[in-house]
Structure formats: C-alpha cells, structure tokens
Design a protein that fits this description.
Layout (H helix, E strand, L loop, with lengths): L7 E5 L2 H21 L4 H15 L10 E7 L2 E10 L13 E8 L8 H15 L5 E3 L6 H9 L14
Parallel strand pairs: 4-5
Antiparallel strand pairs: 1-2, 2-3, 3-4
Helix pairs in contact: 1-2
Keywords: Acyltransferase, Transferase
Organism: Agromyces humatus
Protein name: N-acetyltransferase domain-containing protein
Length: 164
C-alpha cells in the first residue's frame, strides 16, 4: 500500500529525542561508511567531523532541521535537512540545501513513506529559499538510489575504489 502524503507528518525532535537520535544516527553513519569501504578509524573520524560541524555542543547548528517522520502518528523514521553552507538557515540567495540523513524504520518500509518524506523535504527547502536539494547515498543502497532517481535526482559524482 502506498503512503499518502496526508498521513505523513514531520515533527521537530524534542531535546530528549534529539539526543537519542544523534547517538543512533551517528552510529548508523559509521556503520554505513565502513560498509562503503572506510576503515573503522576513518569512519570514526568522519563521524566526529560531522558532529563538530553540525552539532556543536550536541545541538543542531543554525538552519539544521531534524524531524521525526510520523505515519498515522507512529514514529516511522527521521529526516535531517539543512543548508550546505554554515548559514542562518534561510537558504540565502538560492543556496543549496542537503538531505543529510533520512531513515524509514524497517517495519515502515515499502509503503511510500520515504517518497512522501522526500517530497516534504523538497517543500521545506523551497520554503527556506533553497534553489536545489542534494543528498549522498552509498552505492550499496540500491532501493534508495531507485527512489531518488524516480524523484528526479541526478548523479553528480561517483567515487570508485578497488582493494589492491
């Protein structure tokens, strides 16, 4: 059954939810980087860099928005979006925004929730004056790549590696 946007809502995370989310999200980020080829040390360094840039004092930097994705009132996942540059978050003169992290919990997948959430992310970015919305996706995440392509996202960079 496909999700209808009417029953998808984004609720800003409370301080308590934000603290729990930050631990879980950053742990998943490390795991994903390792799965994509980073060493554990590289993954930890990338996580620490991300936390320092986007969550000084464990609080979101200006303009960074973190939501709980609700499907019929149930916690179905999360969305973190914000400006690429360190700004006040208004999008400036059409500055690009970024989907930094999106997650639909396993029990809620394959229902259109990811699609509806991405459409909401686009709406929010437009409301903040963004001219574009970018994202990164690891190559092994084929279902996500298919979703983003179906929404009109184009590949702008491709990194390739080989163990030697």
């Amino acid at each position: 059954m496909a999700a209808e946007p009417a029953w998808i809502t984004l609720a800003p995370k409370t301080d308590e939810q934000l603290e729990r989310w930050l631990v879980e999200s950053m742990a998943e980020y490390e795991t994903a980087r390792i799965a994509a080829g980073d060493t554990p040390e590289q993954a930890v360094a990338a996580r620490k860099e991300s936390e320092a840039r986007f969550f000084p004092d464990r609080r979101p930097a200006a303009g960074q928005l973190i939501f709980t994705v609700l499907a019929d009132g149930d916690d179905a996942g999360w969305l973190w979006i914000g400006p690429w540059k360190d700004t006040d978050g208004d999008g400036g003169d059409g500055d690009p925004w970024w989907v930094w992290d999106i997650r639909v919990h396993d029990a809620f997948q394959r229902r259109g929730i990811g699609r509806a959430t991405m459409l909401e992310a686009e709406r929010i970015a437009r409301e903040h004056g963004a001219a574009s919305l970018g994202l990164n996706v690891f190559a092994y995440n084929v279902p996500a790549i298919r979703l983003y392509e179906s929404l009109g996202y184009l590949t702008t960079s491709l990194h390739m590696f080989k163990d030697v």
